[in-house]
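Shapes recur. Our protein:

. . .
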Amino acid sequence: RGCAVGSAYTQPHHVTPWAFDGATDLDNLVPLCFVHHRQVELGRYTYVRRYPDHRKPDGALEHPLWWIVPPAA
């Protein structure tokens, strides 16, 4: 499960903010649609580092390195 917006319509988001020395590289960038980008910026969504042996959090958006987790319902 993930966002249905095509990659051409996403914005890069720094997981560790650039202002706090977050690198501008693929390990620290997540492509987000406008809606999900806004939710992350408002602190409603959080990041969890993705590891092969960990279960995906409920409702999380998928990224190769991160789970983007919505607020608990």
User: Anything to note?
Assistant: The radius of gyration is 12 Å. The chain has one helix and five strands. The helical segments are 34-41.
